[in-house]
Write a structure and sequence with these properties.
Largest sheet: 10 strands, mixed
Number of helices: 10
Oligomer: single chain
Radius of gyration: 18 Å
CATH superfamily: Aldolase class I
CATH topology: TIM Barrel
């Protein structure tokens, strides 16, 4: 069983909070997010089939520099059998494994749990509002409702919290796609899920800055500015004020900032 790979990076200091990692991009995705930075990977341009063992051997060359391999995409869980073999091969090489997912296939996450240490999951809109979720992921509302995508995303979050060392919960903030109120509502819904599991120490909440690029599929969003840094900071403080979370991270294109409760002055939205 092979995996369809777009490429890899020997060292990243921003793809996982607090962990330098080797990054592997797998091709294909079942979402069509209009602001996607990796559209060429979603559409499987310049991808190649590789044996999971070959990829694992390449990643293992960086042992000592990194202990984690972060498998992202695209949506890695679409290649369920290949992903399982890849995670197993990485684990056999003595590496820790992280998977980045949109949460739409919790059953795949459950199958790879024996080889998984960490998960990053995108909460792309309020889970209680299927229409907004559909708009955010670029799919018709009928598909989002018939496949119960928000419920599957919530289940994936629960699977990660109950079984893994850490779960990075990413809240994208994209101009003209997400209103501040949408991000706040999504944060409150995440708080409810984390509260039910009681694994507060595992949840790492991250606000994702949008950065326009030529790879973004929507011409309209390509012309939008990057998410305002002041807005991200104000959102972080609002979430800290209204939830039980004690720290929020902001991920920009080349840096990560941690904001703790009462650490800086508050700014209004």
């Amino acid at each position: 069983m092979k995996v369809l790979v777009a490429g890899w990076r020997d060292l990243s200091t921003v793809d996982m909070i607090g962990e330098p990692c080797f990054v592997i991009w797998l091709c294909g995705c079942n979402f069509r997010c209009p602001w996607c930075q990796n559209w060429h990977i979603v559409e499987c341009f310049d991808c190649r089939w590789l044996d999971p063992q070959t990829v694992a051997e390449r990643a293992a060359e960086n042992l000592g520099l990194v202990e984690y391999v972060h498998v992202t995409g695209g949506e890695p869980t679409l290649q369920d059998k290949g992903l399982l073999e890849l995670c197993r091969a990485l684990k056999e090489k003595g590496l820790k494994v992280s998977v980045d997912t949109n949460g739409s296939r919790p059953e795949v996450l459950e199958r790879i749990l024996p080889y998984l240490n960490h998960m990053a999951i995108d909460i792309k809109a309020p889970l209680s509002e299927p229409d907004k979720y559909a708009r955010a992921i670029g799919l018709p509302l009928e598909i989002v409702e018939s496949y119960e995508i928000p419920a599957k995303v919530e289940k994936s979050l629960q699977v990660g919290l109950c079984n893994l060392e850490k779960v990075e919960i990413r809240l994208p903030v994209v101009p003209k796609v997400h209103e501040p109120s949408d991000v706040l509502r999504a944060a409150h819904e995440v708080e409810e899920v984390v509260g039910r599991t009681r694994f507060w120490n595992k949840a790492v909440v991250v606000l994702q800055q949008y950065v326009p690029s030529e790879t973004v599929p929507s011409p309209f969003l390509r012309e939008q500015p990057m998410t305002d840094a002041g807005l991200l900071q104000a959102l972080a403080y609002k979430i800290l004020d209204e939830t039980e979370f004690t720290q929020i991270y902001i991920r920009a294109v080349d840096s990560v900032i941690k904001i703790k409760r009462n650490s800086f002055r508050r700014e209004s939205l």
